[in-house]
Amino acid sequence: MVICEKKKASVRVYTRQAEPGIYPDGLARSVHFSVKWENGAEEPLNAGYGILFAEGTIRENNTICPKCVADARIAARKDGTFAVTARRVEEDGSEDEESRGKLLLWLTKDFISFEACGLVEEKEAQRERELPRADTAWAAEDVCARALLYWGKLEQTGIRLPERAAVSCAQELEDVRALAVYSDGSVAEKRVDWDGSSVDFETEGEYLVKGRVKSPRYPFPLDRGWGDPVVFFWEGKYYYIATNDNRDDVGFYVREADRPEELFEEDRKRHIILDYDEEREFIQTFWAPEFHEIGGRLYILFAVGPKKWGPQCWMMCLKEGGRITDAGSWEEPVRVRKKDGSFLCEKGITLDMTYIRAEKASYVVWSYRDGINSPLDTGSMLYIAQIDEKEPWKLMSDPVLLSRPLYGWENTEGTINNEGPHAFVRDGKVYLTYSGGSANGYSYVLGLLSADASADLLDPANWEKSLTPVLSFYSVEGQYGPGHNSFFVDPEGNLMIAYHGETAIDGHLRCPGIRRVHFDIQGRPRFDLSADRDLKPELSDVELRITVKPDKGDKA
Fold this sequence. Notes:
Elements: E1 9-14, H1 25-28, E2 32-37, E3 42-44, E4 57-58, E5 64-65, E6 67-76, E7 82-90, E8 102-108, E9 115-121, H2 122-128, E10 136-138, H3 141-151, E11 156-160, E12 164-167, H4 170-174, E13 178-182, E14 187-195, E15 205-214, E16 226-234, E17 237-244, E18 252-257, E19 271-274, E20 284-294, E21 297-305, E22 312-317, E23 334-335, E24 349-357, E25 362-369, E26 381-388, E27 391-395, E28 400-403, E29 419-426, E30 429-436, E31 445-452, E32 464-465, E33 480-489, E34 495-502, E35 511-516, E36 518-519, E37 525-526, H5 531-534, E38 541-548
């Protein structure tokens, strides 16, 4: 056992008591972590939300049998790592006959990343793997501190500016940016509104100027009754499209503005570009429309269904020279097909298709489900396929299963859900968020799949799946069920996330929200940095000493 010299910190593992409608079985019966200090203080990791979850099993009829954990234990090992074990149980906590005599095992060195070893024989493991027998283990203080920082809520702690700046005009002063510093040491560039009213830019000299740091701040909710929000920039304008819950999910409406925040003005015009149409059999489930530029053309990827309930994936392309807000500027919608020419789905439903442009190929990802609301419900799952950008509605490869809702946070209270994928690419990695839980309830969450952008994205082994949600109702106070998101870049160059959520834990009215995506000290995207923690008012007022050196060159 590795024991820190002063024994001032320990890590405790535990499960929680299930509370239906607040923290159900699928969440409560997972491994939670907390750090205990010598003075008796105890701090939960991940705000008290579970971190390690048992995977459900697949029955012979292709349905999912959800699994949970009980009797979590932890121990420090001789090699400096920690072992965490738990019994696998049924969702209601009863005995899991399939795993009798076995334990779930995870290994970690830092309580940040975990190696899942699956089920191991209990007797053999006790003898060979130094398996734990207690719920608490001593750990080094620095290990505990780093784990708390990683799993905790980031917040701004300071601001950085250059000691002085040389400028020749008002525009150069405006271009001077500040760096906001966060609790983990990461930084983010911020625009500053500088007061240059006392500066004579025609005369050389030194000045002390004051300014106020600015950061994107969107109120929540931005609107009510709109789910699956998408903000998209195209040819100098921003556009907004979403699922219209206010009209029973019928019709696609687009808003246009010069800046993203203007899209949500009360009097902003809504343009209908695709509506109820009996002739086309566009009757219901006008779901999750997304704008994507594919091969230089603008498309909307969406789901819609006929009179008999059953949404399927479609695409619609903007005509050359057409206007997004003009229904007549769009070509006839095309239903997505497999590489053999058959429809993407003949049995079951497809929805939430999105597009990924990686380094070597282009792909679409979508959600598929069969047997919904029946004993043979497979749950919704994510599939991926390669496409040719010249004909994106026709797959080039066979569909490949990417993810199923096997964790308790993906399958809460029978939701069995993987849907709403959306991706961005940064620094050679593809980040694909998706949603689990109830699409219009408090349990909706974001999961994250990531892969190298140069990898073959059709190989599931090239993807890494988050063990726990990256955004949940524990992430930002007053926002419940955050999920089904999209990404866009704002006029200042910030990567932003648009999502929907509810304003109360028992609410079911989907409301859009927007916030900045932050990249922490490890380069990991953080989707939970609220505006209040992104930029604090008391850290917003700044001063800068500038030297004015007028440009004396030929201005002709």
